[in-house]
């Protein structure tokens, strides 16, 4: 069986449920794919899924790679290069992030309107791939029309969403209260350890991007809050139905 997907999904935190909704699917373990790294993080599977979501052909990446795992940026973003070669035109990404905006609540869904790249290595460093220019424009890293579509869907379905800027950092430690405050003063509303490298390479490859964060913890306020990986996963699981509903409807309409 073959499919010709134009849409890819990175099933990050909060979107795992979507994998079970893919029909007519066939999958490949990352271990079977030449040059693919293998995720080492609890809660992240490791396979490429091809199939249908509703009546749309899709490609889904269940499990992503992180800079903090020890991979370089070429390895972290290698799957995006594969997507480009397969003809992907739209990429949907999700993540868990710590919120620094005082108006946010744990469990909120934040549509990413822009990002700040705070990683110590740039994914486009080195020889330029011919998928895009040496100095790619990033004024619209996250597609405005896809953001507008998500806003309309959330309003129709009475789902609370917020908008904000995502700060991508190295990790793997969660942020100190001082770091949360600094990132917020720099213009970020949420912070996490993924997404930004993948988005940069997607845009360099001409792929349009929609990103959404689930706010799994809050930091930088007067009372310091301790956070664990288990609490992050629990908050993401609570938000998962609404995130899945928005993404499912967006893919249906796109």
TrEMBL record:
<keyword id="KW-0597">Phosphoprotein</keyword>
<dbReference type="GO" id="GO:0004731">
    <property type="term" value="F:purine-nucleoside phosphorylase activity"/>
</dbReference>
<dbReference type="InterPro" id="IPR011270">
    <property type="entry name" value="Pur_Nuc_Pase_Ino/Guo-sp"/>
</dbReference>
<dbReference type="InterPro" id="IPR011268">
    <property type="entry name" value="Purine_phosphorylase"/>
</dbReference>
<dbReference type="InterPro" id="IPR000845">
    <property type="entry name" value="Nucleoside_phosphorylase_d"/>
</dbReference>
<feature type="domain" description="Nucleoside phosphorylase">
    <location>
        <begin position="7"/>
        <end position="252"/>
    </location>
</feature>
<keyword id="KW-0328">Glycosyltransferase</keyword>
<dbReference type="GO" id="GO:0009116">
    <property type="term" value="P:nucleoside metabolic process"/>
</dbReference>
<dbReference type="Pfam" id="PF01048">
    <property type="entry name" value="PNP_UDP_1"/>
</dbReference>
<keyword id="KW-0808">Transferase</keyword>
<dbReference type="InterPro" id="IPR035994">
    <property type="entry name" value="Nucleoside_phosphorylase_sf"/>
</dbReference>
<protein>
    <recommendedName>
        <fullName>Purine nucleoside phosphorylase 1</fullName>
        <ecNumber>2.4.2.1</ecNumber>
    </recommendedName>
</protein>
<comment type="similarity">
    <text>Belongs to the PNP/MTAP phosphorylase family.</text>
</comment>
<dbReference type="GO" id="GO:0005737">
    <property type="term" value="C:cytoplasm"/>
</dbReference>
<comment type="pathway">
    <text>Purine metabolism; purine nucleoside salvage.</text>
</comment>
